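Lay summary. Proteins are chains of building blocks that fold into shapes, and those shapes determine what they do. In this project we predict the shape from the chain. Here is one chain we studied, written as its sequence of building blocks.
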Amino acid sequence: MSAYVSGKNMFERFLHSQVVGSIILIAATITALIWANSGWGQAYYDLSHTYLGVRFGEWEFKLTLSHWIKDGLMAIFFFVVGLEIKREIVVGELSTFDKAMLPVCAAVGGAVVPALVYAFFNAGTPSSSGWGIPMATDIAFALGVLSMFGSRVPIGLKVFLTALAIADDLIAVAAIALFYTPNLDVVTLVLSVVPLVLMLFLNRAGVRATWIYALLAFSVWLGVLGAGVHATIAGVLVAMVIPVRPSIDPGRFIEVTRGLLEGIRGKDNSLDALIHDSRRRHKLTQLTLAVEDAIPPAIALEHRLHPVQSFVILPLFALFSAGVAFSAETLAGFPTAASLGVMAGLLVGKPVGVLLASWLVMKIARIELEDVSLGQLLGAGFLSGIGFTMSIFISELAYESELLIDQAKVGVLIASVFAGAVGAVVLHLTLPKKTD
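And here is the predicted shape, written in a compact code that computers can read:
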């Protein structure tokens, strides 16, 4: 039994490891770059633009494979992001003003300064709309790099970077919804709220049928897509109606389960006896429902979807989004205003914005992070400059020109590599040395 439990824990740790997820994401990115620049580059382009869909008589709904990933699978990614945001706001490091002040202000500084840096290089140019690209942080990569330092990392720095990344995601989601929605159908958007209200009502009524919630969530996705808002925002909206708190408090749960366990116990506790005793089977069913009530739905979903996000969704997104063909046109005049703005925003704007905002809040509000130095905050600031997933995603929303998109992606890839490397070096120099 102990071997089974130990093996299960090791497997779960593997599935939820930020480092392993980051390695797979890097592998998918390298594969995309090699594929797009190989003799099979046209096949890469044709596959990503292959249409897939359904047809019923005259009605047809189809999207390219690339759009199914970016508008469909990435909605699940944003659903998990939404669950993380809600968890932190309700019960986590953003749940009180005192807890939230430092990471939120750091996230704001780490969003505003990069946007201003980008605007400095691109104001008045066709690429000026890309100011949101260097605002974003790839939480998986940032925490993956931090986790490589193991026990050397103070708990305060882990909490700070995690809360900063969550607040950063919230800012990125708001930017996508408010500034990268060109055509808004208000009526359709309002109608998409109806299934959200139904989900809240069914949840309060204790309905547990998963297929009903999945159908309603799909309705929200269709409504948001039809309204002209990027479909991934539907994932965040659905996450906001998923409860973060359990429906039964711990004291009541212990009381109920103790009584049910007593009812299940009998003189004959063999498997055959349980199968033939309908009363004990009923008690076992009630016990199962009580356990479900004691587990917060949002946290359970976040835990279950994390491997799907890390090992399926994000690698597929990288595979069909990071494949930039390094043509003469793409590299002409490199660095262009777009790529330079992105690189400067992520490599300079992010760490400067995070460190400056953190320092101001710590001085004005007299907040201190235990065992965390300004040097370590600077290292965290560089890690927040790993834009990658979110930055690539926003670049595809910011521009209509494929050339500008590719130039921005080149900037994102270069800046993310250097930001991660510089952040790792800074943290290596400023974190306490490992003691035997």
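What the prediction tells us: The domain at 14-180+230-245+296-430 is CATH 1.20.1530.10 (Na+/H+ antiporter like fold).
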